[in-house]
Amino acid sequence: MPPNPDSPNASRIEGFAALRMSVFQKLKPDSAIPLYQQLYEHLRVAILAGQLKHGTKLPSSRALADELGVSRNTILSAYDQLTAEGYLQSIEGKGTFVAHSLPETVLTASPRRTGTQARPRTHRLSERAEALLATPPMPHPSNEARRVRAFRSGLPALDAFPYERWAKLVSRHAHRLQPDHMTYQDRAGYRPLREAIANYVNVARQVHCTADQVVIVSGSQGALHLAARVLLNSSDQAWVEDPGYLGARTALVAAGARLIPVPVDDEGLQVDEGIARAPDARIAYVTPSHQFPIGMTMSLKRRLALLEWAKQADAYILEDDYDGEYRFDGRPLASLQGLDDHDSALYIGTFSKVLFPALRLGYIIVPTPLLDAFLAMRHSMDVNLPILEQAALAEFISEGHFTRHIRRMRMLYAERRAALLQAIQNLPLELYAPPTGMHLIGWLPDGVDDRAVARKAAEHQIRVMPLSLFAMEPLARGGLIIGYAAVNQEEIAVGVQRLGKALDAVYRA
User: Fold this and answer.
1) CATH entry 2.60.40.10 includes domain 9-107
2) Which CATH number fits domain 130-139+162-400: 1.10.3720.10, 3.40.640.10, 3.40.50.300, 3.90.1150.10?
3) In whole angstroms, what is the distance from residue 442 CA to residue 458 CA?
4) Concatenated DSSP letters for 381-438?
């Protein structure tokens, strides 16, 4: 309904008086907020509050400017903005009026009436979101818990990171940025970084690939989400190690997969059991170099059996090599992908464990026939990653700092592992500590709840993770995941004492 320009003069005068009393005196010429913006906001509030009623004619811009002693442009700017947003309506030859249909009336719900209870909103989630909410996420420590390093797993030795070298590389590339670096980038990632990664994994991990097959992602989690979206249809079956990495489970569930828990033993994933449970699964997720969380290495026999199953089932293997560099007895083992001759294995690497987690850079090495699909999906997800860290990392690798850092960390972690094994040997735990990785397992006596122990340890300022948290099926016995990479020898000694007190408290209960 349009405003009525022929309303009685009394109504116009009343509206003008209300306007003058409720708005004009509130303007503050010395405020940092421009006058037109102040006027706009006061008028908008007066209209919404009903002080300026629908159909009320406002003074002309010239009259209002004279009244306020301000520039006419100030009034015009405020009127134009209110008109554009639907609060006012201008009729040629007749004036400016308060509109009958206001934006807030159309776009927002009516205010709740006094004495009535609004019906609560029912939020509908997708089946995938509901399934994801029902899947345990990786534990995320609070700010206070992050300060506790003994005995967090998955955290590298940040106290030994070459901060000065890294800062110089980041600064150097920040100063070198050109306009073409600030536009959209290659979907696969920064080319020099992909070349550096391909050179490294071909030599150090016996991965067979070219730089064209390397896709830069946001850590291993980004790789898992990308692969799951490309390779899985809703309700496809996916093998997961049990116990196994929770991040893989959440990525697969988010893609609509049906998880098939496959137990592990001393040789890794039990391929025969996987075939018995779901022979037509679409994906198998494995950590063959250092199974997470228990720590065994997949035997060659199992690797070949897994590759043969994938070939026969037309399935894919997601090989997560999250910390394969850290082997203390001999050279790191060759990748499963290097044994693949059927384009079945996709190799995932991350810099979170070898450099620092906040870097959020990783990579996935994709069989050439799948590249177009991966890049199309990657573009739909986040287009490309920020370039500055990629450029710094490319130079960090190509100048040799990366391999030197890994060698230093391998020696440091071996020392810290030995110190932990020496300090913890008198605790009532059965230790499983293969010569690889960044953590060990402390098996608990039969019947002891590992989650209760983890909670009690937290009360003693110790962070250990219960093994049962990572299991889909009941475990024969509970265990603790005890990280040592981020813990110096003094902290190890104190931490073991506190862990001993926590164990005593649980055993006596």
Assistant:
1) no
2) 3.40.640.10
3) 16
4) HHS---HHHHHHHHHHHHTTHHHHHHHHHHHHHHHHHHHHHHHHTTSS-EEE--SBSS
Strands 214-217 and 88-91: unpaired
CA distances from 276 to 146, 235, 244, 262, 306 (A): 42, 18, 19, 10, 13
On whether the pTM is more than 0.85, the answer is: no
**CATH code of the domain occupying 404-508:** 3.90.1150.10
- The answer to whether 87 and 99 are in contact (CB under 8 A) is yes
Q: Which residues pair with 97 in a beta bridge?
A: 57, 89
133-145 pLDDT, tens digit per residue, is 888 777 766 555 5
**Rg of the chain, C-alpha, whole Å:** 32
Cα separation, 73 vs 225, in Å, equals: 54
14 CB-side CA count, 13 A: 12
CA of 125: how far to CAs of 28, 228, 248, 340, 384, in Å?
A: 48, 20, 22, 40, 28
Per-domain boundaries in the chain = 9-107, 130-139+162-400, 404-508
- Note the pLDDT tens digit of each residue in 63-88: 888 888 888 888 888 898 888 888 89
